[in-house]
Amino acid sequence: MTYCVGLLLTGGIVLLSDTRTNAGLDNIATYRKMFHFEEPGERVISILTAGSLSVTQTTIARLREAVEAPDADSESSIMLAPTMLKVAEIVGNTLASVRQDIEGKMQAAKITASASLIVAGQRAGGAMRMFLIYPEGNFIEATDDTPYLQIGEHKYGKPILDRVVTPDTSLAEAQKAVLLSMDSTLRSNLSVGMPLDLAVIERDACRVTQRRRIEAGDPQFKRMSEAWSVALRESYRQIEI
Predict the structure, then answer these.
(1) Interval 190-202 mean pLDDT
(2) Is the model's pLDDT at 24 over the cut of 60?
(3) What is the pLDDT at residue 129?
(4) Based on the structure, what is the number of domains in the chain?
(5) What is the CATH number of the domain that holds 70?
């Protein structure tokens, strides 16, 4: 399993993913689940992945192949698409096609293969946008009412986002929110694990302005996790019934 979260804020976009992939307790591996396509100053597109590794890896590979193709155009390449909505359509169609291809090959074994994606970014002159792409290729978009999207094992990290994140949350506070959301998930689900990948895209920068790989034992993340545990315990004790 996995956990990925994206925040669409007034000041920019904040993205976080774990890297654990497992096919049983004795078969655990680390794979990147955050991918960036960028032409600094012109456009930036980031994709977070959750689900079957064969589906997500093939989808990203096909998207890269389409970008690099000699006959790439606005209908096939996310780096030439005129809008982020068109980017979401291209990604959704690619994901649906890959899923159908792989499920067709696995049909005899009665095995299903599914995946979902978060696509976020901005092109020069356009608005920042963020979409959740479903396995069938359809999608929904983040809004001011719900300025965040999650995929994977999302239930443990949702409460803090519901309580503290608004469109006007600063990028610094947003990073703290997604990291504490991830910390709650790490504590409650062994199928989500470190290292973590964190990225920030500032509004109108059209590039990834901050990247961070957080390894197990990272002192800053450890201090934040411990402080959050202490704060929760103290608040719990202070509540009267």
Answers:
(1) 93
(2) no
(3) 98
(4) 1
(5) 3.60.20.10
Task: Give the SS3 label for residue 1.
Answer: coil
Question: How far is Cα 77 from Cα 42, in angstroms, rounded to an integer?
Answer: 15
Contacts 24+ apart (CB under 8 A), 166-169: 167/8, 167/9, 167/10, 168/9, 168/10, 169/7, 169/9
Query: Can you give the pTM of this predicted structure?
Result: 0.94
How many angstroms separate the CA atoms of 145 and 12, rounded? 16
Helical H runs in the chain? 53-68, 84-106, 158-164, 171-188, 219-238
Taking 3-state DSSP, the helix, strand and coil percentages for the chain, each rounded to the nearest 5, stand at: 35, 30, 35
DSSP designation for 146:
S
Q: What percent of the chain has pLDDT over 90?
A: 86
Alpha-carbon span 50 to 151, nearest angstrom: 6
Instruction: Label residue 147 by pLDDT band (50, 70, 90).
Output: very high
Residue 120: strand, helix, or coil: strand
Expressed as residue numbers, the domain containing 219 is 3-238
pLDDT in tens, 43-71: 999 999 999 999 999 999 999 999 999 99
What's the CA gap between 204 and 238, in Å, rounded?
Answer: 44
Q: Would you call 216 exposed, middle or buried from its count of C-beta atoms within 10 A (0-12, 13-18, 19+)?
A: exposed
Token pair belonging to 191? 């199928």
Cα distance between residue 228 and residue 178, in whole Å: 13
